[in-house]
């Protein structure tokens, strides 16, 4: 059945446009309009612009293009081995600190020990599986603590220090030849009257904790 012609009327008193398609159909559709506005029913064109989003794949690709030997920066040097030897009394084969990479006077020090197959303890610990002895990790951490203790801000460079105690020591993961042991020692409490200091230490390989514990240091004047 053919539909009658559509009628488009505007009522100025009610500010409403009425579109009547057929009187026998449902009630007319009402659209609110301003007097000064016109009605334009047009299909919204689709945007043809392309949005590009960055992904992790592009970053991974860029990293692969950089040779691996150029991706990682070297540790900074705050104290080199010669400066360390001026502070610590230890010498080969028991000097277990190679470089200080961060130092806050009277508070903390961060140092590294490069663990190599040429270290003199590996032939016996163990020949078929070279693992750094846990007691030497503790000794290396204590030497980093000594760098804090023997500075003028704490005890003075003309003093010796000794172990007074170690508590809550835990070994989390073996340290093997080829690892770089990064050790942080922090001064927690200092009793200058008795020459006793409490320190907390953690050692890392990469971002993994391999050893941690609490240390008591005793200061002793040189004879």
Summarize the structure.
The chain has 223 residues and is α+β, with helices and mostly antiparallel strands.
Low-confidence stretches: 1-26, 35-40
Our count of helices gives: 3
The 3D shape can be described as globular
Helix content: 10-25%
Terminal Cα separation, in Å? 121 Å
**SS content category:** alpha+beta
Q: Would you kindly provide a written description of the structure presented here, covering whatever features stand out?
A:
The protein is of the alpha+beta class and 223 residues long. Helices cover 15% and strands 34% of the residues. It contains three helices and nine strands, in the order E-E-E-H-H-E-E-H-E-E-E-E. The strands form two sheets. The protein has a six-stranded antiparallel beta sheet, covered by helices on one side. The protein has a three-stranded antiparallel beta sheet with strand order 1-2-3, with no helix packed on it. The longest helix has 16 residues, at 134-149.
